[in-house]
Amino acid sequence: MQQPPSALKIMNSREKKDLFKEIKEQYGIEKTILNKYEYLERSDKIWLTTRCALSKDLKNLRMEGIGMLFGRRSATLKLTTNAVQLFGKHATRNVLELEEEDAWKYMRGLDISDLSHTELSGYVVVKYGDDYLGCGLYKEGYLKNQIPKQRRIKKF
Amino acid sequence: MGRENKRFLEYCRIPLRRAIRVNRFKISCDECVSRLEEEGFVLKSIPWNKWGFWVEDKGDVALGNTPEHFLGYFYVQEASSMIPALVLGAKEEETVLDVCAAPGSKTTQMAEMMENTGLVVANDTNISRIKALRYNLDKGGVVNTIVTRMDGAKLNRSGIEFDRVLVDAPCSCEGTVRKDWKVLSHWSEPLIFNLSRLQKHIVLNASQCLKSGGVLVYSTCTLAPEENEGVVSYLLDKVKGLRVEKVKLDGLKTREGILEWQGARFNEDVRDCARIYPQDNDSEGFFVAKIKKE
Ligand SMILES: C[S@@+](CC[C@H](N)C(=O)[O-])C[C@H]1O[C@@H](n2cnc3c(N)ncnc32)[C@H](O)[C@@H]1O
Q: Are residues A110 and A37 in the same domain?
């Protein structure tokens, strides 16, 4: 495989294995969902793209971006809003389901308080019904909104 | 053309029907449609695209403020703008070049047709439009793209050979007067002349990025012959081994390319290009040429 320009680094199979293990432990998403893609990282950010994209000689391209921003490493792995909307339905762990009214608030970028999911802590997949809204940071009944400003539903 | 002209102008005055394209990565057509209908929108299938629907606002919520929009279940895209990607027909695992891609309505559509496999190189020159492109790709759950910022007239330097190339060229956008009457005011002949020159440079270079047996689609949202048949005719005369193929989509009425304009005679083969008139399909005007490389 070719190395793309800039500081993006393609994950090798060892690194991918660790990533899949981490995601499986944290969100319960199976490796079979994720291992058809390739992963790249730069500092704390992770992108995913196709094998085909990385099989090309990219050195003569002025790249502005590759694939989709998938997540960010902090103490644990945080999935992006877009990654949750795409893969959230495969999550079986750390999934937090909201009531309708809270779901609307969440899509508008508000934090949600007075929740009672005692078993959860840290980054969670936030859902309402069959809709996977995005990632959230949960601690002791409080869900901190993680949806980027531009991405939220505007107030009306 | 007297009566036709009148109908054309009549249609230019009727506000355009809004349309959406359902994102198959995230939801089925049936489910997306029934959810929007429950919210009070009225949807009607677009005959030439089974993922496309015209949407009439009836509810109290604007389309852009619905949960379905937030979730990326659909992309707002004018009905005739869905045509070029359908004509190009990108398939799974192919390598595709989108020369003028921002803000990505056709890139996302092609990625969906390719089931998120293979590669689309999505290029543009305009930084702020590239930002919007990247935002739309991420929101749509598109992973099979590389976004680049290069002059469309120099992309053969990439050294990559493509199965399919889309040139959705910058144009004077006569076709979009129904979206915005203001475009009429910056129409001018020197503008069209300069655009036509740029379009020729871009399409000529794009044709060099094509594998043999590959397909190139050239499209604009204008009906000015200088920017359409004139450009395709230039390409055909300049590069041997290219052939124009007829554009055929179910339920879409098209008209033949024009062979003569203001004294200039074009290459006969431009007859097989497709003109899409507002009054024929109640859409924006569009021009699409499908070109096959031997
Ligand atoms: C008609 S718009 C493309 C719309 C896009 N295909 C879509 O469906 O969303 C034309 C684009 O060409 C870009 N452009 C202008 N000059 C260019 C050049 N020399 N090379 C590449 N792109 C160019 C503009 O920035 C603009 O985004």
A: no
- Report chain A's C-alpha Rg in angstroms: 17
**Residue B11 resides in a domain:** no
Whether residue A53 and residue B149 make contact (CB cut-off 8 A), yes or no, is: no
The continuous run of DSSP H or E covering B146 comes out as strand B145-148
Is B144's CB within 8 Å of A150's CB? no
> What pLDDT is stored for residue A2 in this prediction?
52
Would you say the CB of residue B126 lies under 6 angstroms from ligand 1? yes
Cβ <8 Å between B61 and A156: yes
Residues of A in contact with B110 (CB under 8 A): none
Q: For residue A99, what is the domain's CATH number?
A: 3.10.450.720
Enumerate the residues of chain A whose CB falls inside 8 A of the CB of residue B67.
103-104, 107, 131, 153
- Cβ of B124 closer than 6 Å to ligand 1, yes or no, is yes
**Based on the domain organization, do B87 and B65 belong to the same domain?**
no
Whether residues A78 and A121 share a domain: the answer is: no
Task: Please tell me the total count of domains within chain B.
Answer: 2
Strand A9-10: give its sheet, edge to edge: A9-10, A38-42, A45-49, A68-73, A77-79
Say how many Å lie between the CA of residue B126 and the centre of ligand 1: 8
For chain A, what is the domain count? 2
> Would you report the helix, strand and coil content of chain B in percent, each value rounded to 5?
40, 25, 35
Please write the tens of the pLDDT for every residue from B180-209.
Answer: 545 555 566 778 889 999 999 999 999 999
Tell me the per-residue pLDDT of B50-100, one tens digit each, with 9 for 90 and over: 999 999 987 678 899 999 999 999 999 999 999 999 999 999 999 999 999
